[in-house]
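Hi everyone, sorry if this is the wrong subforum. Our group has a chain we'd like a structural model of before ordering constructs, and none of us has done structure prediction before. Sequence below.
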Amino acid sequence: MAAQCVTKVELTVACSNLLDKDVGSKSDPLCVLFQNTSGQQWYEVDRTERIKNSLNPKFAKKFLIDYYFELVQKLKFGVYDIDNKTFDLSDDDFLGEFECTLGQIVSSKTLTKPLVLKNGRPAGRGSIMITAEEVKDNRVVVLEVEARKLDNKDFFGKSDPYLEFHKQTGDGNWVMVHRTEVIKNNLNPVWRPFKISLNSLCYSDMDKLIKVECYDYDGDGSHDLIGSFQTTVSKLKEASRSSPVEFECINEKKRQKKKSYKNSGIVSVKHCEIIVECTFLDYIMGGCQLNFTVGIDFTGSNGDPRSPDSLHYLSPNGVNEYLTAIWSVGMVIQDYDTDKMFPAFGFGAQVPPSFQVSHEFPLNFNPSNPFCNGIQGIVDAYRACLPQVKLYGPTNFSPIINHVARFAAAATQQQTASQYFILLIITDGVITDLDQTRTAIVNASKLPMSIIIVGVGGADFDAMEFLDGDNGVLRSSSGEPAVRDIVQFVPFRKFQNNRTKESVRHDVFA
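Answer:
Right subforum, don't worry. Here is the predicted structure as tokens:
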């Protein structure tokens, strides 16, 4: 019998005394969480943000993981110095790692251990501290914050401010739970709206103190404190756009030195809302029906399918990266699709008989019935379609996104069981209608719809990362913000050798 999930656990990571791999500056660390379920192979679960110029990083991003009391869950935390934009960790300097079980962390609550190198030797004096907290509350605090008249900490320009939110532990220590983006050269910054789980922010106690610190970002890691204040979620909830809640940003050292000191600026909370974020499992158990559609990139940048260098080349064993990606994601999603009939489309190819370029042609060439029977049906249609079309271009995502969005919009008008639409786009990463795609995604964010983009090959995926709203709210070409983040981008190579249901489900539904 399968083990029952006891709870969800949130892991917070900090490091100290990391190796310095950069000349003229400090390492730019990032922490990667790996899990081992098979007893042999590690697969990547998630990554923290990269912190520039720091040998003592405190990572704001948390790792959320299911905790099974009955299982030994092997974890590995790898720390890397990131000096490029590639996803492949082999390009980056390794700063050390630590292996343990989730049970060891949970039983310790906070576990501090030395980092070691691949050969098992100490990674200098580097150490890692991992804190575990059970997540019992799925409420989330949504905040919109700005500031005005902040102190200027720079000689040749204005401050580059950002905020850090801290909660207080039972022993009185402060732990950072969120860090905003940096606003360059601005004493009146407006930060992007952001979300923090209520449990992370204040242990779900709305009257528990929160400390907010405002810093001036410096490229060398020596960030200057502008000022700070303390508040509670109860106080923040009083904010509205017509009547914001405002706090004086106080720098205690400056106040002690200057008798005339008032404050170091005003931080204004324009909006604070507490919402309940339902999980994927909540929707499924609530009777939601999933509708899965596949879109495949047939543009010329993939290379001639007859050449072994092409991403569409069918190897002697009959597979390529496109087919493997279809299986990897499709095998997870098909468990939740009731009829297992999946529409499948191609884009960016010249299609018979007229060989006009199309950006939403059915793989089976039947516009009135584009459905394929199961994942095997999609695979069969792809193999039959490939030799009949001519790879061309440009690479336009917006037509197929709008295509699925029309069905999602129609579903919202029906009074039947709830439906949710998932569009899987498999692409080599070169996109030409970015503005139209941004607008299509923003419009689709209002609908019961999500988009999974799987990038195959080794192209530059910056555009795909941009469409994924993890690093900020995506906006349309006219500036309209997305209502929610509906795009999940996954580089195929991230899980191509780890195609277990668990690893793929985490990657595409994270």
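For your construct planning: The first strand starts at residue 7 and ends at 16. The chain has eleven helices and 26 strands.
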